[in-house]
């Protein structure tokens, strides 16, 4: 992907309209994604855990030009919920964009507040089962692999997006959770 394409993609991404919320997930207004990021505003995000019928989890590596966590591995597809979208609509859109997965039922598990030096967000956590092909969005995803989420799957030297790791830890703690196996 050439630098001109990357620059155009990043500019378009920054101009997206997103929902600004407070620490209780109450809507405060609509702002540009770039404004939310530069001002450290709380936004709504989605985390979609994609399992296959063997119970393996799809993890992907973010591209090096991502503003947040560049080249980190991510255990969930997802992203910022756009203005006018519900958490579910945002999850469906992000899953189709990033991994080319659509038309699959999503299970919503819970929502949680994530607060770090890099970002503050309300996350809607979803999962699905997918055994079909993946079509990676080249602007956002550079590699994927399938792992057993209940084993020691993190490789030495790899960095992982902390927000999705927290979402996964919470998901795996839910005793009533039945992974898509």
Report on the structure:
The protein has 181 residues and is of the alpha+beta class. The protein has a single domain, classed as Nucleoside Triphosphate Pyrophosphohydrolase (Alpha-Beta Complex), CATH 3.90.79. 25% of the residues lie in helices and 30% in strands. The chain is built from 4 helices and 8 strands. The strands form 3 sheets. It has a 3-stranded mixed beta sheet with strand order 3-7-6, sandwiched between helices. Strands 5-4-8 form a 3-stranded antiparallel beta sheet. The protein has a two-stranded antiparallel ribbon with strand order 1-2. Strand 1 and strand 2 (27-32) form a beta hairpin. The radius of gyration is 16 Å and the shape is globular. It starts with a helix and ends in an 8-residue tail after the last helix. The model has no long low-confidence stretch (mean pLDDT 90).
Which terms summarize this structure?
181 residues, hydrolase activity, acting on acid anhydrides, metal ion binding, isomerase, NUDIX_hydrolase-like_dom_sf, magnesium, 4 helices, 3-stranded mixed sheet, alpha+beta, Nucleoside Triphosphate Pyrophosphohydrolase
List the helices and strands and how they pair.
Blueprint (H helix, E strand, L loop, with lengths): L2 H13 L1 E5 L5 E6 H7 L3 E9 L5 E6 L10 E2 L12 H13 L7 E9 L4 E10 L11 E7 L14 H12 L8
């Amino acid at each position: 992907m050439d630098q001109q394409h990357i620059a155009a993609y990043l500019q378009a991404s920054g101009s997206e309209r997103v929902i600004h919320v407070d620490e209780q997930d109450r809507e405060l207004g609509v702002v540009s994604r770039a404004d939310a990021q530069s001002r450290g505003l709380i936004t709504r995000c989605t985390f979609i855990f994609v399992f296959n019928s063997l119970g393996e989890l799809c993890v992907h590596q973010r591209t090096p030009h991502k503003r947040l966590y560049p080249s980190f591995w991510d255990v969930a597809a997802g992203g910022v919920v756009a203005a006018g979208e519900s958490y579910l609509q945002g999850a469906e859109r992000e899953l189709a964009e990033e991994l080319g997965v659509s038309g699959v039922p999503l299970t919503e598990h819970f929502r949680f507040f994530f607060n770090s030096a890099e970002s503050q967000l309300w996350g809607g956590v979803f999962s699905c089962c997918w055994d079909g092909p993946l079509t990676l969005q080249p602007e956002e995803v550079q590699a994927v692999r399938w792992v057993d989420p209940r084993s020691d799957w993190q490789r030495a030297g790899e960095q992982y997006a902390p927000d999705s790791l927290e979402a996964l830890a919470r998901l795996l703690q839910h005793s009533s959770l039945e992974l898509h196996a």
